Amino acid sequence: MKKQELANWLCRYRLSKYHQDIEPYRGREDEFHQLFEPYEVIEGEGNCLLNSGIDEIWDLVTGAVSGADHIFDNTHAQIGVGDSNTAAEATQTDLQAVTNKTYKAMEAGYPTSTSQKATFKSSFGSSEANYAWEEWVVKQSTSAICLNRKVESLGTKSTGTWTLEVEISLS
């Protein structure tokens, strides 16, 4: 009898676009999301798990690294967006954009970890990341290690708030 072991990494994301600016609601973003409806929502699946992110996961699991310089908690996790459409490769370590790239901290209460998944959520206000969104990553702010990278044209932001929520499941 042949034994087969499989692991699945599934990434789902949702980009919600709002006309309103989230800045007056920082720290209480849930209130913003309850008050305002997005004018557009884009959902998708898939991304490229980066080699550096894989190594970081195993280093955290084995205790080879620990602490604030490595964990993806509310204080140290970010979502970054950029305007590069360079194809995603596992050997990349970050966004590929040269100048138009922005990293944003987590909303209050994120990331979460439930039911074999981690959920990251960041909102970019009216004055942030106003350019074509062609790529995104989940990044640890201190170590600068990115878990993953996705390349997909999500539109061009010029004002308002765009909120990117990323769910990563392992099974």
Which class best fits the helix and strand makeup?
A: mainly beta
Number of helical stretches of at least 4 residues: 2
Give the radius of gyration.
16 Å
Task: List the helices and strands in order.
Answer: EHEEHEEEEEEE
Biggest sheet overview: 5 strands, antiparallel
Oligomer: single chain
Q: What count of domains describes the coordinates?
A: 1
Which spans of ≥5 residues are poorly predicted at pLDDT below 50?
none
Q: Give the overall shape, derived from the CA principal axes.
A: globular
Number of strands: 10
Mean pLDDT over the residues: 96
What percent of residues adopt helix (DSSP H or I)? 10-25%
Task: Kindly describe this structure.
It contains 2 helices and 10 strands, in the order E-H-E-E-H-E-E-E-E-E-E-E. The mean pLDDT is 96. The chain is globular. The protein starts with 8 loop residues before the first strand and ends with a strand. With 171 residues, it is mostly beta strands. The protein has one domain (9-170). The strands form 2 sheets. It has a 5-stranded antiparallel beta sheet with strand order 2-1-10-7-6, with no helix packed on it. Strands 3-9-8-4-5 form a 5-stranded antiparallel beta sheet.
Compile the SSE list and pairings.
Layout: E1 9-18, H1 29-35, E2 40-45, E3 48-49, H2 51-62, E4 77-82, E5 101-105, E6 112-114, E7 117-124, E8 132-140, E9 146-156, E10 161-170
Antiparallel strand pairs: 1-2, 1-10, 3-9, 4-5, 4-8, 6-7, 7-10, 8-9
